[in-house]
């Protein structure tokens, strides 16, 4: 036993010595095989943690670094804390998943031709160049004192399963200060997001954006498995496929904007925030709104003005629209001086409004009949999330248009999903999401009023709710607004009721019961009758107290 403990101590000491030399080439490695990982971002105000089983995906260069002091090593796993080049993402990676950089460099480059991968490799080379320069300077300064010393032996990765193995490395601050600036943000995530809680407001100067490409099948997928943008599709047992495309977001929050001319139609609660973020990130944007005065602010910020939807489409390569309902979406395309009149072969039209799938399919057909390219991309979020550039985009239709919109989606959102199959799939998915959200909001309002009616403290109810499994920013903000009597619209009540109505109709079309949504819809209809249409969806609370 004493001998075993002695060996353990020696291995720990060796680990400390080896891990303290961060610039050594052996620590530059490739992540190459499927593994269970938790991905962290050490630059965030509140690190997110994602866990899930990753499928096969292209290799990615990384560097073994010291973990933050408060981040524990997973028990029972022989692994190292790796920072991925071209990103600010870190993960615990098993030893067998790592390969030395130089011996496998050419092999990996042959496998991966993607731009993002090449940028990551360039970041490695730049890092090694800087490290070599520092070593050369250091050796020149101490050439006399170092003369006669033996060359360092090649390093070995210590497989000791010891949580203290990294304590001898340099601090996290020292690591990030010397690392090259990333050219993209890549996150290896899968499955369910677990254990994260917003503790402060999201910061746009350090965004994290993900693309997911998903296929629909009769057998529902149980997981989403994103990888980097090499467009190599992962086949799942469930029949689903998914891809994560790395964005071009640098650490300072800048985005490389597309050189395509962007048009935007509709400057409502959601559209205004989207356009503002497109302009902030350097896109060339032409705007139009039914009420022309709403364009003035954006013209001052650098946007161009289009006199009609047709003119905007004819002037731009990609035109987005975000309006209130199916009728408005149809009128915008098919009406006088509408989108259809400006469509020419190659022009792209992106419908971001939440509408029924039948409307989406109709618009896709008329756009493509003129040689245009169509993408539906409704968004999940609110006015605040739109302003913060933290929307979730759900897209379907022409996948090449989705890829052309990459920098735009990065500017306006934190995540985008592409659902394979026919146009209309994104509309279906968004209606289901909003159906759940609307029903949930009505249930929260019902709980608050029941608490009051039974003599319970509404604030205590909220405090308990926000400490349980349903805790979320959504619950906290909506309940606080209700208790303060603040119903300033963040998402119009009339729009969530519209979404419930469309979701119920969609259920009817496939003979699927939606009794919960139907009950919630009736409560929202009562709130509308109480003149709450233009208030926030949380004003459904008033349907219970009048």
UniProtKB/TrEMBL annotation:
<keyword id="KW-0158">Chromosome</keyword>
<dbReference type="InterPro" id="IPR029154">
    <property type="entry name" value="HIBADH-like_NADP-bd"/>
</dbReference>
<dbReference type="GO" id="GO:0031491">
    <property type="term" value="F:nucleosome binding"/>
</dbReference>
<dbReference type="InterPro" id="IPR013328">
    <property type="entry name" value="6PGD_dom2"/>
</dbReference>
<feature type="region of interest" description="Disordered">
    <location>
        <begin position="129"/>
        <end position="186"/>
    </location>
</feature>
<dbReference type="InterPro" id="IPR008927">
    <property type="entry name" value="6-PGluconate_DH-like_C_sf"/>
</dbReference>
<dbReference type="InterPro" id="IPR036291">
    <property type="entry name" value="NAD(P)-bd_dom_sf"/>
</dbReference>
<dbReference type="Pfam" id="PF03446">
    <property type="entry name" value="NAD_binding_2"/>
</dbReference>
<dbReference type="GO" id="GO:0140673">
    <property type="term" value="P:transcription elongation-coupled chromatin remodeling"/>
</dbReference>
<dbReference type="GO" id="GO:0000785">
    <property type="term" value="C:chromatin"/>
</dbReference>
<dbReference type="GO" id="GO:0051287">
    <property type="term" value="F:NAD binding"/>
</dbReference>
<dbReference type="Pfam" id="PF14833">
    <property type="entry name" value="NAD_binding_11"/>
</dbReference>
<dbReference type="InterPro" id="IPR051265">
    <property type="entry name" value="HIBADH-related_NP60_sf"/>
</dbReference>
<dbReference type="GO" id="GO:0050661">
    <property type="term" value="F:NADP binding"/>
</dbReference>
<dbReference type="InterPro" id="IPR000313">
    <property type="entry name" value="PWWP_dom"/>
</dbReference>
<dbReference type="InterPro" id="IPR006115">
    <property type="entry name" value="6PGDH_NADP-bd"/>
</dbReference>
<dbReference type="GO" id="GO:0003677">
    <property type="term" value="F:DNA binding"/>
</dbReference>
<dbReference type="InterPro" id="IPR035501">
    <property type="entry name" value="GLYR1_PWWP"/>
</dbReference>
<comment type="similarity">
    <text>Belongs to the HIBADH-related family. NP60 subfamily.</text>
</comment>
<protein>
    <recommendedName>
        <fullName>Cytokine-like nuclear factor N-PAC</fullName>
    </recommendedName>
</protein>
<feature type="domain" description="PWWP">
    <location>
        <begin position="52"/>
        <end position="104"/>
    </location>
</feature>
<feature type="compositionally biased region" description="Basic and acidic residues">
    <location>
        <begin position="129"/>
        <end position="149"/>
    </location>
</feature>
<dbReference type="Pfam" id="PF00855">
    <property type="entry name" value="PWWP"/>
</dbReference>
